[in-house]
Amino acid sequence: MENNPSYFYHFLEPISEQLAQMASGLEKSIYASPQTMLMHSRTFVEAILQRVMVAEQLSVEDNLALKDRIDLLERKDLLEKEVLDAFHQVRMNGNSAAHESRDFRYSEALLSWEAIYMIVRWYVKKYCPQDVKVPAYQDPEPTKGDETEVSELEERLQNMEILIRSNIQQQKGLTEEFETAAVSGPLEGALPGLASVRTIVYKDRSLEVPHFLRDAFLLPQRFEESESFLTTLGAEQEVRVMSELPNNLEGLHHDIKGFSGENDEILFKELKHFIQEETARREVELTHPGKLVLFYKTDYVLVTDQLANIPLTEEEFGSSPNLFAQLQEDQIERVGQLPKELATLTKYDNVGFETVKELFAQLKEK
């Protein structure tokens, strides 16, 4: 750390300026936003995996999911047990951060930070020049006086992901213009996160998955005709997020009793609608930066400070005492604490879409 003591992974700079800068962003986000750190850690280790696959002359398909890459290297006996566990820890912690509506702890981010160290140490030792030395592990110190906003960190990490993925796809140097944009901000005229990162096909049809949905949680309730199919996939095959879906949905129903090829086709159709709906929501969020937005199906409510502080009680809303009682058990007591996807409220006992629809209508009125 003699050259630049400001961030731990400066020693990666001779190997990859992109990896080094992304590691710096992850380090800053540990205490600023543990959830941001956990989510973006997946892309960091995925980029390392892709470099290993190139070095080992394995398949370099850019649309392989993170789990597929880990499984491939495990089958080839290229991962030590400690390193394999570290990859899975980063992957699973990242998946949790991508779809769970809760406050993530610093300790969770630090566990992934330590797992990343194991991965980087293994990668540098096995695949990098011998003059690159990995320092001993150390926990990062909370940065005092750092005024970097969480939204800025998120934006920079997201643009670094686009940069790294572009490099994976092209396997060549990037233009100075794009590299500058990735470090300082989004490309002019582009909506961050909307670039396609993979293609999902069914027979002769295909759909593009934008970057911001790469690891989106596939909430079964969002898929009216495929709810049971997705619930079963999640339980039996650990298919809970977008990146865990295969690139080809044809035959997805195999090995799951009670479903057929028709379910594959219906899911593909609903995935297309889901992506369109989420893209529209993304545009709403990007045009209202810093605002809390609550979504219900194709509609939304912008939450003002006044609305955010309204208590979730039967007195205020005149209905849903059962829902409000369960929310309070989870310490969700005001409108501003509601999950942005109101459909998730149907997870509570005896709470259906009619109850959520009524609550949403009342929120719009207020």
Structure commentary:
This protein has 366 residues and is mainly α. The protein folds into three domains: 8-184, no CATH class; 191-285, no CATH class; 291-366, no CATH class. Helices cover 51% and strands 6% of the residues. It is built from 13 helices and four strands. It has a two-stranded antiparallel sheet. A two-stranded antiparallel sheet has the order 3-4. β1 and β2 (205-210) form a beta hairpin. α2 (34-55) runs parallel beside α5 (106-127) and α3 packs antiparallel against α4. The longest helix has 27 residues, at 261-287. The protein is globular and about 70 Å long. It starts with 16 loop residues before the first helix and ends with a helix. Mean pLDDT is 81; it is low at 144-148 and 169-190.
Summarize the structure.
With 366 residues, the protein is mainly α. The chain is built from 13 helices and 4 strands. The protein has 3 domains: 8-184, no CATH class; 191-285, no CATH class; 291-366, no CATH class.
